[in-house]
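BUG-273 | component: ligand-complex export | severity: low

The export step for FE2/S2 (inorganic) cluster jobs runs without errors, but we want the raw record kept on the ticket for reference. Input record follows.
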Amino acid sequence: MYKILNKQNLNQYITLLEVYAPFIAKKAKPGQFIIFRVDEKGERVPLTIADFDREKGSITIIFQVVGRSTELLANLDVGDYILDFVGPLGIPTHLDGVKKVAVVGGGVGCAIAYPQAKALFNSGASVDVIAGFRNKDIVILEEEFNAVSSRLFICTDDGSYKEKGLVTDVLKRLIDEGNDYDLVIAIGPIPMMKYVSLTTKPYGIKTIVSLNPIMIDGTGMCGGCRVKVDQETKFACVDGPDFDGHVVDFDELMMRNSTYKKQEMLDKKHNCR
Ligand code: FES
């Protein structure tokens, strides 16, 4: 059982939980994820590690309520326990030798982009963070990103906060201004990662995306998380979750991720457990 040490509602949709999980905290690295199960009837849901504190023995997760399991998780409070909390899973993001990077986050994906930005900034790299949100009300982690970036660019779809526009507009402008990034990291909704990859491809800038397919066991056994990368089938839980964005089949990933949408809607509607 894993105790919740801290809880913050970052906005009306997104929740932060700090969970006591000392063995995971001891080994966790940026890019890795955990799989949680709220209770014995719960489904297994992967969430990327947003932060870790080895001394305190804690793991921070940040998530948006998108279905029944995340709703149950968001309803827990400080002092409550999560039944299963397994990790760290997946291959850590390869960050060695990176000197100048653009970290691009979209919505709740910014929570996953944060540890990458932090690790790179602490290693001495120049880190431009581009964070995109639908509107002002759902902006998260501004202060945190300010502390771990050389420059922070926030944009909103409706222009209600900072720059109006898409993360790809900002990224293209920065590249065209002569910022010679040796790496772009993009984490967020699948269409955003797809279009960031399409933006960087003509410039030949290496681009890493963090994929979020449906997962079940998280150990490479069930095949639920398969994704097509460079025409080959990969399992995101053991081969990823990071992949070269220029060769990911994003359209197939979008199709596979919507497989259970109807069941999820029904479950949410009838609260049938
Ligand atoms: Fe089962 Fe990846 S989650 S193979």
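Assignee comment: Attached the raw record above. The chain has a mean pLDDT of 91.
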